[in-house]
Write a structure and sequence with these properties.
Structural class: alpha+beta
CATH superfamily of the largest domain: Butyryl-CoA Dehydrogenase, subunit A, domain 3
Strand order of the largest sheet: 1-4-5-8
Distance between the termini: 48 Å
CATH topology of the largest domain: Butyryl-CoA Dehydrogenase, subunit A, domain 3
Largest sheet: 4 strands, mixed
Bound molecules: acetoacetyl-coenzyme A
CATH architecture of the largest domain: Up-down Bundle
Helix content: 40-55%
Length: 389
């Protein structure tokens, strides 16, 4: 029986407990099998559209994409949703999360017109959203963004390349960060909403992954967007990106937690069901010790994830340090828990299609995207040293 005891922790309110139960049931009933084992781009895109459509039609994108009042994300709901979906299938979590990340800057900083135009179709699962920050030479170093945005009358003209863009080629609109030049480095960036059909925006290449998700490189050439596409003020792009990541980094940790819980569930079943040297694996002390370590890592990750979510929701203050801790620990711990589960399965653990095998491929990217583990350490170290200075 999968562990549900964490739902009784004081971080949650009754609505969170209800959400976790309902979404779990929905994923089992309505999403099972969608996109599983799919590798070619067209089938993958179709599966993602269908997952988003079903999530939206059932109302499950609501707390994710349209926080009310403006900017008040329910981070505990987001995190629990990602954990529950990730426990079922990495692709379900991906589809859910990207709807939120791709509209996060609009939810947090968009004006009433932008929010009215872009958020409802995403919430209903009719439109797909994407967040375009990274570039070939600007991944960890956001202040090095080279794509440009030049003001031309009532338009902005975008030029440059964005890469590692989740939902690239599938999205209906992108939030694009570009250098508008108010100052050097991090202070000279702005954020724009770019409709996918805008002339001058091209999908330059799809990027195949070890755990297939839609990912692409985008090229902007003389791409003209109206002045109304600007989110917030010119020069606020870095702040907008970081504030969005402050919400979503905690939830990357939550997705990793969902993967880790699934790996632990699988490992426990295996430990009871598999006999070696005349008795079940579960009766060997080496297995008991490993399961204990896995359970400890899972609970420690959960505490950090829901601590960060609670601080953001309830105290409403900046959670850069807590979110970085949650992402760093939960993704690294999940990698270790999943690796241990593969080991417990022995040869079966590396057979294509086994749940622990696909978790092993799924988890790896989470230690990289939305800020690598190394960047999270810089953020935490900087915050702690700054606090003590
Ligand atoms: N909220 C608000 N303001 C913030 C902030 C935050 N979280 N973080 C920094 N700032 C402010 C700072 O206070 C500073 O302001 P002042 O100059 O007024 O003091 C300003 O922004 C610049 O901050 P830094 O000097 O710390 O900036 P930096 O250039 O050294 O960069 C960094 C810091 C933490 C390394 C940052 O670049 C970073 O987070 N890098 C990782 C990027 C990342 O996560 N990329 C993921 C891409 S998206 C993705 O992966 C999505 C996907 O496909 C799934």
């Amino acid at each position: 029986m999968p562990d549900r005891s964490f739902l009784d922790w004081p971080f949650f309110e009754p609505r969170h407990r209800a959400l976790a139960e309902q979404l779990d049931e929905f994923a089992r009933r309505e999403l099972a099998g969608l996109g599983h084992g799919v590798t070619d781009d067209a089938a993958l895109d179709a599966a993602c559209r269908e997952i988003v459509r079903r999530l939206g039609a059932a109302g499950h994108l609501n707390p994710c994409c349209v926080p009310e009042p403006q900017g008040r994300f329910d981070v505990r709901a987001l995190a629990l949703s990602r954990e529950v979906l990730g426990r079922h299938e990495g692709l379900f979590d991906f589809c859910f999360a990207m709807q939120g990340l791709g509209t996060g800057p609009i939810s947090l900083f968009g004006n009433a017109w932008q929010r009215h135009r872009y958020l409802p179709p995403v919430r209903r699962g009719e439109h797909i959203a994407a967040f375009a920050l990274s570039e070939p030479q600007a991944g960890s170093d956001v202040g090095a963004i080279a794509a440009t945005a030049r003001r031309d009358g009532e338009h902005w003209v975008l030029e440059g390349t964005k890469t590692w863009i989740s939902n690239g080629g599938l999205a209906d609109h992108y939030v694009v960060f570009a250098r508008s030049g108010e100052a050097g480095g991090a202070k000279g960036l702005s954020a724009f909403i770019v409709d996918a059909a805008t002339p001058g925006l091209e999908i330059a290449a799809r990027i195949p992954l070890i755990a297939p998700h839609p990912l692409a490189t985008l090229q902007f050439r003389n791409c003209r967007v109206p002045a109304t596409a600007l989110i917030g003020q010119p020069g606020e792009g870095f702040k907008i990106a970081m504030a969005t990541l402050d919400v979503f980094r905690t939830t990357v940790g939550a997705a990793a937690l969902g993967f880790a819980r699934r790996a632990l569930d699988e490992a426990v079943k295996r430990a009871h069901g598999r006999e070696v040297f005349g008795k079940p694996l579960a009766e060997h002390q080496l297995t008991q010790a490993r399961i204990a370590e896995m359970a400890l890592q899972v609970d420690a990750a959960a505490l950090l994830v829901y601590r960060a979510a609670w601080v953001k929701d309830v105290q409403g203050r900046r959670v850069t340090r807590e979110a970085a801790m949650a992402k760093l620990y939960a993704t690294e711990a999940a990698q270790s828990v999943i690796d241990a589960a593969v080991q417990l399965f022995g040869g079966m653990g590396v057979v294509s299609g086994m749940p622990v095998e696909s978790l092993y491929r799924e988890i790896r990217a989470l230690r990289i995207y939305e800020g690598t583990s190394e960047i999270q350490k810089l953020v935490i170290g900087g915050a702690v040293l700054g606090e003590r200075a």
